[in-house]
Amino acid sequence: KHLEDVDPTREEQLPTTVTAPRTQRVTRPGAGVHVEGLDDVMVRLSRCCTPVPGDEIIGFVTRGRGVSVHRADCANAASLRDGQRDRLIEVEWDEDFSGGTFVASIEVRALDRPRLLRDVSAALADHHVNILQCSMKCGADRMAHMRFDVEMGDPAHLGVVLGSIRDIDRLNEVFETYKP
Questions:
Q1: What is the mean pLDDT of the chain?
Q2: What does the alpha-carbon distance between residue 58 and residue 36 come to, in Å, rounded to a whole number?
Q3: Which one of 68, 83, 94, 160 is at 20 to 30 Å from 59 when CA atoms are compared?
């Protein structure tokens, strides 16, 4: 139908594939970051370095998207310090923040073998870690490169999870990482 052919006084039955919009917004817990001098500003944790409480962090005032928080050792943060210092802002972790979740990135390198992905994902599941994203590729040298973005409630839990993955048979490397 064309828009001009629709009678606004007549109710039409929508196809079953069309659903009504949600009436309740689903929101995630706050970032747990305090921005110096500002109370009501949108804050987002940068995906390039996935900062977690305890990391040294810096803030960057974006154009139209609030403050982006980076780990101080992030390569993107270093370029911001060099090129756009006037847009940097002091940020710190809220001391009383609890209940939020944070994203950590884990990389695993190992000689490819059957059940490798299952073993690593089982180790994550055994620690009740939610996998948000996973990618795996295997090169001609048969080395498997896996990256997991996982959601965690406590950053101190990360060391325990990494240790559990390291205990898996025939792994070369396991480490927390971020994209430079």
A1: 77
A2: 11
A3: 160
Dump the DSSP string for 25-41.
Answer: ---PPP--EEETTBSS-
Q: Is the Cβ–Cβ distance between 152 and 158 less than 8 Å? A: yes
Query: b/e for 97-125, b at 16 or more Cβ within 10 A?
Result: eeebebbbbbebebebeeebeebbeebbe
Q: Are 155 and 54 in contact (CB under 8 A)?
A: yes
Distance between CA atoms of 142 and 144, rounded to whole angstroms? 6
SS3 content of the chain, % helix, strand, coil (to 5): 20, 30, 50
- Sole residue written with tokens 């240790």: 163
CB-CB contact of 149 with 103 (8 Å):
yes
Rounded distance, CA 164 to CA 178, Å? 20
pTM over 0.70: no
Q: Which residue is it, tokens 């080395």?
A: 143
Beta bridge partners of 57: 71
